[in-house]
Amino acid sequence: MDRRDFFKYSAGAALGISLLGRSARLLAGNSKTDKYSVVILGDTHYDAPDPEYYHAGYTDPNPKREANHRKEFVRNADMWASRCPSLVQRAACLVEDDTRFVLQLGDLVQGDTATAEIHKRFLDDTMGLLKARLAPDRPLVTVAGNHDLRGNDDAVITQAYHEYMTARMSRELGMDIHDTNFLFNAGPDAYIVINFGNTSPEKIQDLFDRSRGARHTFVVVHSPVFPYDSTSHYWWILFGNRQDSRADERRWVRSLLASRQAIVLCGHTHKTELLDWEGDGGRITQMTMSSVWAKESQGSYQVKVSGADGYGSLMEPTEASRALLDEYRPGIRRYSYANAAGSYKLFVGDRDVHVDFYAGNSPRLSERFKLR
Length: 372
What we know:
Strand content: 15-25%
CATH class: Alpha Beta
Oligomer: single chain
Number of helices: 10
Radius of gyration: 19 Å
CATH architecture: 4-Layer Sandwich
Number of domains: 1
Low-confidence stretches: 1-20
Shape: globular
């Protein structure tokens, strides 16, 4: 399949729908040298001031886990009453004429709901709020995060997310979407959206096959694809778990991404992190982003680790975590890590791809990350 075949899967045309409507026109682009921007929020964990508004009837069979979740309700209420509205307002100022769409990287909401009806209302309220405040006339695209699929009965909540979000993404993108793993494009570029909690190698392979010929391949996924520098959560990666029982799938997807020189846009860790890796005959560049402004200090950009040699330096390694990180460490060419939250602007051109980061509600650029 060459570049001409790729355009069969452009927004509005992927499933035989003609290029009609503003969303399709915004995303279509006009040439292989197309230049545009995307405004991005990382995890947002939107919540209401009153914990009973969305969490009425919420329970968890593990009292300790429920207590930790309820602490998150308090955290979310505080940051959305004080800091996060100004963060979103700052992000709105980044939307310009060349902005094709707005992207949110999962954990849109806190989750922890009792019923499908409440969960759908939670999702709809949050999408409505962000779209109204950021860019009412641009598509707002999101990817499934673990909190988006969490409640009294995870299966019920996951189904509620699927029903609501496939319909919502269909409207936002002007195309027919039936799964929370899906493909769309902006101009000549492919955006492969992966629901890391409910995907398979077959689904991912199909999305890559359908997007052959893309200028740039962006993989939008809530979880990172590289091990996270954390003693407790190093295994928070696509096809990862503590036992590394899906190692074959993990390595397979790494090789697939490398073969396409993929750029990964992800969240999950509540950090701002850049990792550039070479291996498996290719290259993967991962940009991790967060909009969880939980502490005032996260509103400033202060690098904690910089340089490839610093990868893994923050954890107290175990035998398992050391083995996993050591598998990736030789291929790392660039690495930086900061405990900072804010808003991001992706610039995409033929030869230049970079992300501008604005910590907190900073009116000034905090850092520019060169991706390509």
